[in-house]
């Protein structure tokens, strides 16, 4: 199943807005040359970022598609043709400058529209835009990609030149694999009420209370780690459970966790990461799997917390 959820990207929204407006001018004091440029307004170096999430039930995140116009710092004297084109050679320079390891998107995945744009006479904005789309995002398996575009030529306008610092745009794509939802407020399945024989361990050791208090029905008993720090909450359910849908932790106001990485294991030795997720700001905090897992052991690695003084957990439940 392929599922696309389009999120509002500020940079893209601004670009689309620019393509419909000519009200703004970008005259540069002291520069008599009409500069032809691209400006996403996301940063000094033009960058627009997309996020793609691979899950066991499909791919989601941002729809990797955009339309890019070009601009002039002053109204052009004549209709001006501007050519935008891919420049793969910029990737190595970009990685060296940013200390990154972006890869090129395979050309067979790119749908590139006409790169010859026209700024009408007397205008500062092109009448058309270069459209770019990446199809079949499921095949983007590396952590990060970049699509570098560059103004390669202009013709038609007098006293015009390609901008020296705003002639390129970098479309960045970040991917990740996960089996956990971000900030879920519920979990499917049935709560396992019989936790007889379950054991728990928290590392580092809680400064107050014991980990096994999570298996009582009391809301007054808990364990606390002070000060708050990264910790592992390990639970052994005593036997392998089929079709585990998720986890619920009950916490207390202001002492909740905010980000976790969840692991599962059949033997307590070999662990599979289900992914990193944010956790909702509520007393009932859920970890929900996209696809059910088979496990005897669970490990929640706490990576973030609300209060620097305490992490506190009252109860721990599994849904099957």
General description of the model:
- There is one protein chain.
- The longest helix has 10 residues, at 89-98.
- By secondary structure, the chain is mostly beta strands.
- It is elongated.
- It has two helices and 20 strands.
- Mean pLDDT is 89; it is low at 1-28.
- The protein has two domains: 10-177, Immunoglobulin-like; 199-319, Galactose-binding domain-like (Jelly Rolls), CATH 2.60.120.260.
Give the topology, please:
Elements: H1 10-18, E1 34-37, E2 46-55, E3 58-61, E4 65-68, E5 71-72, E6 80-86, H2 89-98, E7 103-104, E8 110-112, E9 116-119, E10 130-134, E11 144-155, E12 160-162, E13 168-177, E14 199-203, E15 223-225, E16 231-251, E17 257-265, E18 271-278, E19 284-305, E20 311-319
Parallel strand pairs: 1-12, 2-13, 7-11
Antiparallel strand pairs: 1-5, 2-3, 4-10, 6-9, 6-11, 8-10, 11-13, 14-16, 15-20, 16-19, 16-20, 17-18, 17-19
């Amino acid at each position: 199943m392929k599922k696309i959820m389009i999120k509002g990207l500020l940079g893209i929204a601004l670009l689309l807005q620019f393509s419909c407006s000519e009200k703004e001018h970008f005259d540069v004091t002291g520069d008599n040359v009409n500069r032809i440029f691209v400006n996403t307004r996301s940063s000094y170096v033009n960058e627009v970022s997309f996020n793609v999430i691979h899950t066991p039930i499909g791919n989601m995140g941002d729809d990797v598609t955009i339309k890019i116009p070009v601009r002039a710092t002053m109204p052009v004297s004549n209709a001006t043709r501007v050519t935008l084109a891919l420049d793969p050679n910029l990737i190595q320079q970009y990685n060296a400058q940013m200390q990154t390891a972006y890869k090129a998107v395979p050309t067979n995945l790119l749908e590139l529209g006409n790169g010859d744009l026209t700024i009408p006479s007397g205008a500062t904005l092109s009448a058309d835009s270069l459209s770019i789309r990446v199809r079949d995002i499921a095949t983007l398996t590396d952590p990060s990609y970049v699509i570098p575009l560059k103004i390669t030529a202009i013709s038609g306008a007098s006293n015009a030149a390609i901008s020296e610092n705003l002639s390129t745009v970098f479309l960045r794509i970040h991917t990740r694999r996960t089996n956990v939802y971000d900030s879920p407020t519920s979990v499917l399945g049935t709560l396992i009420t019989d936790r007889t024989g379950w054991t728990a361990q928290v590392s580092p050791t809680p400064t107050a209370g014991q980990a096994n208090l999570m298996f009582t029905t009391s809301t007054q008993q808990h364990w606390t780690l002070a000060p708050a720090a990264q910790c592992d909450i390990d639970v052994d359910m005593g036997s392998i459970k089929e079709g585990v849908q998720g986890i619920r932790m009950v916490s207390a106001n202001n002492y909740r966790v905010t980000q976790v990485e969840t692991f599962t294991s059949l033997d307590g030795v070999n662990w599979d990461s289900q992914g990193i997720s944010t956790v909702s700001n509520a007393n009932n905090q859920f970890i929900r799997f996209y696809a059910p897992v088979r496990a005897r052991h669970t490990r929640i690695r706490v990576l973030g917390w609300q209060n620097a003084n305490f992490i506190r957990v009252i109860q721990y439940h599994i849904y099957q």
